[in-house]
Amino acid sequence: MTAPLPIQQIHHLARLTRHLDESRAFYRDVLGFREIDRPNFNFPGAWLFNYGLQIHLIVDENIPLPDETIQTRAGHLALHVDDVDAAERRLQELGVKYVRNEVPGRNVTQLFIRDPDGHHVEIGCYPPLDA
């Protein structure tokens, strides 16, 4: 067996967006990321950072328009919180639509939301993994 790549961590996640201002506000105001300097590329976008992770928003007018359905099994970014109930109350205060899901036998509660372009985000409290 060959050795894996010497990966240390996830650096960033890129998200295509039709709605740069709305997506910037979502990742900033709902999820707590802050905008950081971005190189002067020849296309619009924004970079945000928090929790050791960068989010790179890249404007692309050709991405498909999303429907309104929140799926619990769609590709998603998962973010850990220590208090799911507090996160749920905050989503309610902000008027963010979500789906609550319980994982049987794992004592895990998940909240699924979508950003302005339909990308799914999962928020949950996950028990530590045994190494």
What can you see in these coordinates?
- This protein has helices spanning 20-30, 84-94, and strands at 12-17, 34-36, 45-50, 53-59, 76-80, 99-103, 108-114, 120-124.
- It is an alpha/beta fold.
Distance between the termini: 21 Å
Shape: globular
Percentage of residues assigned to helices = 10-25%
The strands making up the biggest β-sheet line up spatially as 1-4-3-2
What is the count of β-strands?
8
Radius of gyration: 16 Å
Would you identify the regions where 5 or more consecutive residues have pLDDT less than 50? none
Instruction: Give me the strand/helix succession.
Output: EHEEEEHEEE
**% residues in beta strands:** 25-35%
> Can you give the mean pLDDT?
94
**Class computed from helices, strands and strand pairing:** alpha/beta
Largest sheet: 4 strands, mixed
Count of helical regions: 2
Fold blueprint:
Blueprint: E1 12-17, H1 20-30, E2 34-36, E3 45-50, E4 53-59, E5 76-80, H2 84-94, E6 99-103, E7 108-114, E8 120-124
Parallel strand pairs: 1-4, 5-8
Antiparallel strand pairs: 2-3, 3-4, 6-7, 7-8
Task: Identify the notable features of this structure and list them briefly.
alpha/beta; 8 strands; four-stranded mixed beta sheet; 131 residues
Compose a concise summary of this entry.
The protein has helices at about 20-30, 85-95; strands at about 10-15, 35, 45-50, 55-60, 75-80, 100-105, 110-115, 120-125. By secondary structure, the protein is of the alpha/beta class.
